[in-house]
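anyone else get weird line breaks when pasting these?? whatever heres mine. first is seq + tokens for prot A
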Amino acid sequence: MQFQKIPEQGKNPGCACSSACSVAPASSKANVEQPGGDGAVFRIPTMDCASEESEIRHALAGITGVRGLGFQLAARTLRIDAPAETMPRALAALRQAGFDPQPVTVEEQADPHAPMSEGLWRLGASLLLAIAAELLDFFAPETAVYKGAGMALAAAAIWLAGFSTYRKGFAALRQGRLNISALMTVAVTGAFLIGQWPEAAMVMALYAIAELIEAQAVDRARNAIKSLLDLTPDTAEVRQPGGDWQLVAAADVALNAIVRVKPGARIPLDGMVVDGNSAVNQAPVTGESMPIDKAVGDLVFAGTINGTGALEVRVTAAASNTTLARIIQAVEQAQGSRAPTQQFVDKLAAIYTPAVFAFAVAVAILSPWLMGLSWTEGLYKALVLLVIACPCALVIATPVTVVSGLASAARRGILIKGGVYLEGAHKIKVIALDKTGTITEGKPKLVATEVLPSLLQETQVLRWAGDLAAHSDHPVSKAIAQGLDRSNGQLEQFMALPGRGIQARNDGQTLILGNHRLIEEQGLCSPAIEARLAEHETQGRTVTMLAMDSQVLAIFAVADTIKESSREALAALHALGVRSVMLTGDNPATAQTIARQAGIDDARGNLLPEDKLIAIEDMQGRYGPTAMAGDGINDAPALARSDIGIAMGAAGTDTAMEAADVVIMNDDLRRIPELIRLSRRTRAVLWQNIVLALGIKSVFLVLSVLGSATMWMAVFADMGASLIVVFNGLRLLKTKP
């Protein structure tokens, strides 16, 4: 929920759309505050557009005691942070502005997706009454009794279908606003008064039905990401102090409790595995297509699916603060930021609506003189123009597309912080990449083993190396031990040599496992060994040697290996025309080696965080819009300076989520070209919708001026265009990875 102080409110003509519009005003961290303890939540059935949010803010701005408002347009709820004695005045102000606040229970707040009554019976009855009025007018247009009955039926149909529209319309007109409710109020009332009551009734009924269909379609885009909440189980098996297991509501499970997850079940809460091994399908959170092996010490996330092994998990986050819940919260907040195209459309609508309204007034006044029409015909032509003038399709074209794009990205583990970044990603010309953990695995791995000629068996040499490496905590030694997997742990006189290596006795022999410096100090280096070491070091490898008192027995090369997905991702980026540059603190030789192996265009080594910042500024000047991908912590300055900062592998970490504009929930670099492709498709759909909306409006404006358009045609043109752009935007939800 966005919870904001009430700012000074002026008129907001930028949104003149229907109640199905999902535009929300951009928010900033500066005006966000937490709600106080004395407040209440209300459902506003007709509030899901920025124009309505603005009207609510304006209505409550002068109420003393109202400290803040929290809007959730997707759930149509409003939290008013105010003392109990202030609440009646606040609710009265809302009702005067044309809204119907309904108290929301605690249970309904816990389930923001609870179904709402849409008044289907009212719409059905309205349509039947409108049809009856049309039939009476068709078969007995001149009969006074039937005409009176028909007018009564039409009035009843208008009241049933247009009650909320009229209430909001009159409120908007009192405040000098020209939203769609105001336009429909004037058009339907005017048509009824000039004797076109059957058409007025049918237009209002059809408008209300089309608006309901449109609202449900928009809700589909809004709630696409929220469907992930259904993946989280409502209950969890929790271990009790006596050792038995009890089924407990997931919301009531305490931190550090131990929960049991059976094979095939969904994991109820974030936690760390304390017992068991299994493969977990993390696709709902990270978008990974393949299950990930989990063992003791590994993190698991709520909503993911356990494989074939039972797991016991220590809970690390409450149900309301799981990684999945934070993803959903972040996407909901992202829906409130306006993309550049959306800002353009809002400005256009602010000019378009008053201009067409003024044109309609001119038609009503001038057409009887210039075109020889009667005053009634001129007024009817102007009313048709008013219905066509509604810019709903134009204004709704952008938010529904942006929300669909955000939801589509989140489903595949790409968390985008706002529409501005979703739309802006298509402009990326160059991407800077951190090495460790982004391009590479981020942990050393044994990549080469050379057993030098000696009188000893190779198996014995490797066993000795495994024994010594297994007794050291150094990351390089751990990589050697893991790569050899030959230790039996029988060592004597073990001694660590800080900065050099380790020494111990095994099988009666004194052995050392150490770096180049230690071997030189022992006087065991030779030109041949130096040549071998130089070859490994030019490839960015760390070399460790096993030696006896008189000779070097083996050489082990350890390196941070390139991820399997990195080469594919970089090839995809190049295919999209995006240049790649690696920024790393490693030495230039290692940087060039990794860059060559991964297929990176350029590599820059020996960089401190401030050097990476300078590199980003340089690339922005040379190439244009620049993205930076890193771990979200060490690369924070560069992430902040880049046009789009991308944090990698951020599942479960608050810091990475806050540090970047885009968060890749796993370590898969292939998500970045997916982001760019999705951005380009979103951009294309945005402009398709704008062209469709304006094109359809233009055609019917011409037809109206020429006298070939009726109010029926006008309402079908307006709502038909809206539905077309909505369903075109929803296509992004089906975008394939």
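and prot B, same format (seq, then tokens)
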Amino acid sequence: MHLHKLELHDFGAYRGKQSLDLSVEPGRPIVLIGGLNGCGKTTLLDAIQLVLYGPRARCSGRGNRSYDSYLRESINRKANKSDGAEIALEFSIVVDDQERHYRVIRSWHTSGKQLKEFLNVLVDGQFDRILSDGWPDHVEDILPLEVASLFFFDGEKIESLADPERAASVIESAVHSLLGVSTVEQLRTDLLALARRQRLSNEDQAIIDHIRAQEAEHEAARQEAADRHQELGSIRSRCDRLQAKLEKKEKEFERAGGKLFERLKELEANREAIAERLAAQRTALRSLASGPLPLLMLPQQLATLREQAVREKDADDATRVVGVLEERDAWLLDQLPASVTAAVRTALKKKLATDRQKRESAAELKQSLSLPLDALQQFSALDEALARDASRARELLKESAETADRLDDADRLLAGVPDEKLIKDLVEERNEAMDALAVAKDELRRCEVQWEEAKSRHLRIGADLERAQKKRVKTLIEIEELNRIVEYAERARGTLEKFGEALLRRHISRLEVAVLQSFKALMRKSGLIHDLRIDTANSTLTLADSDGEPIDPGRLSAGERQLLAISLLWGLAKVAGNRLPSVIDTPLGRLDSRHRQHLVDRYFPKAGRQVLLLSTDEEIDESLLARLKPSLAHTYTLVHDDTQFTTTVEAGYWWTAGAPHVA
């Protein structure tokens, strides 16, 4: 497919008739269209899709508006609404080795409160009414809408394709629609329809009506399941947005001290309990201090007093012994026989007297405190009490120190609790976000149940329909030809199924190589991604580093995710043979200078046989323009009149035709 010309008449910001020559030639595949933000670059992309697909077009400016409302608002504000707007697109395709030239004109205008739309298709210069009436079906043969979304895209929005789930749907759609896998599946479906028509060929009218009713019910059940699934996706998307909003509010709430505010009563109760525990510990310490514990501050005095008690006890014992010895010595002298001489008696008496004198000297004290006789026992009891009280005091001191630290921590936490007036709005916003998410989740659960019920009903009706058809085939097939048709159709379907699986594996394998090569060619960090795999079962994309470890796409920067998404689209285009034009809006939005150079040098000139770039002056600047120049077929600048709110198309690009419109 080769785009030749785009004409806009009073469409969007484009006043009057504006025309762009889009034709390219070998070696110069790029048409560069420059415009500042708000000048109408995206409007050009919308115009191409609108003229081709009408109400099914995925125009960025449509939003949730109805198709009629969108068309009404797309008429230039300075134009007469009754004259309306018009878009014309000229392109050529090759059919059976012959080039056919198409001109598709979509126009609309208001008539009173009604909007009237017209679509005219010219082929090789001749108006074709049949083709004009059946254009929605014919354009799907030329360029299916699902495939068009892979070649007409907004560079700032394709980063989402780096998400594994989003990439899976794109890969599945592209492989099936763009690479011919869907054709195989359609053949299998056609063969099944053929077999079913044969089964119905000799059916009596009552049975036919019954089965047709079942088929209608089956289709209605399928549509209901599809609607429920679409609704489920919408609700899930809303839940994701509400979840993200709640997480944002939670972070704001937490940064403002909301978590502490929620725990205020708990913190106050905890602080009070700690304070009570500290007070009890200090009371216990004071109680210990009122006993003998302070005596530990007088260790020297206690030792001296203990020594004095020992001396007084020894003196008392000696005094008692001296009295006993006097009686003993007198008795001993009386027991001496008469034969003992006086000298011996005198010497013995002297000896005993000397011994008593020594003992009397020992009993004499320089100073007496008149301590009680059991003073030593009291000192022993005091030592035990002091040891016990000292151990307990140490425990209490350690516990009270720890409790005091905990009390300080509790005071700091309480000091960090924000005032209720300061956090009131955040509390309300957070509660509102929580309530909204809870409502959405309830709705999601209900929708999931409804979807499961719709799926089950669809499967049940389908099984009943299949059984009825099989029963009818078994009972009414009467000729061998009918059996042969059914048998060979089933064989062909089996063969096509195997062929489709092999074709899918082949395309996926080629796509893996093409996407990886494209990504490495565009990346500044050449060694970041070492391998890339696509699961044929669910079309999910997996990245791996040089060690074979998987890489989460979330770890990539915004620019790297955009390059990965571009590489996916580029790889698909390579595998498909680059036979379709690419229209890229805002191609370099989030990329740094090195990545921009890589895209300009390595991607744009090779993205396809025809590439339309819709860029701002900051994306394709003077330096990058010089790099693109050898590949340029045409350049245009969208000039916006801020006073009239209209845009005109001028030939040439900034820095090539002067720079009066550069921001």
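btw re prot B: Confidence is low (pLDDT under 50) at residues 475-479. Residues 420-476 form the longest helix (57 residues).
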